[in-house]
Structures are given as C-alpha cells and as structure tokens.
Design brief:
This protein is of the alpha/beta class and about 325 residues long. The chain has 2 domains: about 120 residues, NAD(P)-binding Rossmann-like Domain (Rossmann fold), CATH 3.40.50; about 180 residues, Dihydrodipicolinate Reductase, domain 2 (2-Layer Sandwich), CATH 3.30.360.10. It is built from 11 helices and 14 strands. The strands form 2 sheets. It has an 8-stranded mixed beta sheet with strand order 8-9-10-7-11-12-13-14, with helices on one face. Strands 3-2-1-4-5-6 form a 6-stranded parallel beta sheet, with helices on both faces. Helix 4 packs parallel to helix 5. About 45% of the residues are buried.
C-alpha cells in the first residue's frame, strides 16, 4: 500500500513506525518540522502543511488520520470523497452526527474506513477474545472495566479541555476504548445508566464518567474512566458462567500487560488459575494496520469500523445529554 499520514504528533509517529514494508508517500502536519520528523522515519521526502496534498495524490491508496478531534471527521470525509481508504484515530469525530456523512460517502465511493480501536489488538485482549470464543469461561454474564490516568500540570488548559476542539472529556477519550471493547465481547449495548462529571480539573469537560451498559440479553458492562486516577491503570474483567478473565495493564506506564484465567472447578472453591504475561513492546498498531489492509484486499468491512464508532459515540452522546455537557461543533 502507498500511504499518506495526516497528523504527525505522537500517534502519527506510532502509525508511521507500524507501516512495515508499506510506503509512506507524504507526511502532513500543521508543523512542517513534525511532518519532517515522521517522514524521516520512513525515508520519505514529501512533506506538507496542507492535507489536500495527500487527497490529490493519485498514488496514495490509504490515508492515516491522527489529528486533534475537531479535524478527524472533516478530513476523513474529504478523504473518502477523494476515493481513499482511511484509518482514522478514535473517536473519529466529536459527535455521532459528524460520522453520518462519512458512512454515506464511504459506501458511495466503495472505500472502507477503520477507526483506531487499537486496544482490540493488545495480546492479552486478543487471547481473551480467543478464550471467550472457544467457550472456556462459558456464556458471558457481565464485564467490569476501569481505565484511568492522572493528567499532568496544565492538563485543564490543553486542547482536550476545550469542548469545541475535543467534543468531550474523559468519556470521549479513554471511555470509547472501554465501550468498544465491551461491544466486542458482548455485542450491542444500550445505556442503562450513565454519569459524567468534573470533580477535580477546572475545565468544562468531564474528568470522570461512570456507565452501566446493558445488552438485549441483560448482560452488563459496568465501566469507569478517570483522569483523576493519579497512577495510570487499565483493568478489564470478563465474567462467564464457568470462569473469569482479567486483563491488567497495557505496558509502559500502565504496567506489564497480563491476562488471568480463573477457571471454575466442578467442586467450585479456589479456581484453577493460568496467567499469561506480555512484557514486550506494544505491537497493536502494527496488527491493527495489517488487519485493515487485509480487509481492503478482501474487499470486506473491517472490524472496528466507522459504524462501530458511530454506535460508540451514540452511547457517549446519550450520557453527555443526560448530564448537560453540550458541544457546539
């Protein structure tokens, strides 16, 4: 594939490093120096500050978009209209309404849009999905997920704290990953209860959100996301009728990634326990891109696509509307 990257910050850099043998044709950022830094990673000479330069390039098959939230949907719509496949970072837009014209344009132009739900490709979560699908823990009952970080000095003044730029706070940031993972394991979910609030940071977006999502079969996902966690953490527990899977950590500042399988014994009591540990570098970005490219080659809708993102944003919007968080986009 011949690829263009639009947005060359930390995530754009990760995407460039995950390209493998695919060719980076152009790197684009509002900062020409950031664009040059990413271009150098893949020995690419073409850089620009105008994203149209990627859309007009007939060589390019795939656009990777990793800008701030207010530009994600706008650039994605322009890219699919230009006939490009797109991998856009989560949340893909600030509101579900921003994604509707993208869905329509992608279908009209016969291209695919994948959203950056890279947590699906972490090794502990991939292994957990394999175990669930194999029936090891039996029919699922409910999920409990927690995800959080502690912010940093000046966090309340960054772009994520400005509703018009971000679209929301912690629920739209880390929350969309937990919602997506819950849907991946349980299927369709609706909001049973939800609450988003600002407890600590002096900003007009939420720093904590609490959700109870429910499936048509009364399976529950009980989720909490926080940027007052102080110590970075990720915890995702999947409860079945024959056992439990527990994922802790994501590597780096979130701690070593581990998967625990607690398998119920016939006499119950203490479970049979198996632990997998994944201390190596995060390969989720590479796996996600490769799966998307295989989907394009097979001409089939990818997992974690733009429709999935809209459903996630519908859930976010339901909670924000109930808590009177308004975004003027």
């Amino acid at each position: 594939m011949k690829v263009g990257i639009i947005g060359c910050g930390a995530i754009g850099r990760k995407r460039a490093l995950a390209l493998g043998s695919h060719e980076l044709v152009i790197a684009i950022d509002t900062s020409l120096e950031r664009a040059r830094e990413v271009a150098r990673l893949k020995k690419c000479s073409a850089v620009s500050t105008d994203y149209e330069d990627a859309l007009k390039n007939n060589e390019i098959d795939l656009i990777l978009i990793s800008t701030t939230n207010e530009f994600l949907a706008k650039i994605t719509l322009a890219a699919v209209t230009a006939g490009k496949h797109v991998l856009v970072e989560k949340p893909a837009g600030r509101t579900p309404e921003e994604l509707i014209p993208i869905i329509e344009a992608a279908k009209r132009n016969n291209v695919f849009v994948k959203v950056g739900f890279n947590h699906r490709y972490h090794p502990a979560l991939l292994k957990a999905k394999q175990l669930v699908d194999s029936g090891v823990v039996g029919p699922l009952m409910f999920i409990r997920g927690r995800y959080g970080h502690g912010g940093r000095l000046g966090y309340e003044k960054e772009w994520r704290a400005i509703p018009q730029k971000s679209g929301g706070g912690e629920l739209l940031d880390q929350g969309v990953h937990l919602i997506d993972l819950s849907r991946w394991f349980l299927g369709e979910l609706d909001v049973a209860e939800g609450f988003a609030h600002t407890y600590f940071w002096e900003m007009p977006v939420d720093d904590n959100a609490f959700l109870m999502l429910k499936s048509p079969n009364d399976q529950i996902a009980w989720l909490h996301v926080s940027c007052t966690e102080w110590k970075n953490m990720f915890s995702f527990e999947i409860y079945g009728k024959k056992g439990k899977l527990q994922i802790e950590g994501l590597g780096g500042s979130y701690g070593v990634e581990r998967l625990y399988l607690y398998k119920m014994l016939p006499m119950m009591g203490p479970p049979e326990t198996t632990i997998w540990e994944y201390p190596f570098p995060d390969n989720s970005w590479h796996l996600e891109l490769n799966e998307f490219i295989r989907s394009i080659e097979m001409h089939k809708e990818p997992e974690g696509n733009i429709r999935d993102a809209k459903t996630v944003l519908d859930i976010v919007k339901t909670v924000y509307d109930a808590c009177n968080f308004k975004v003027n986009v």
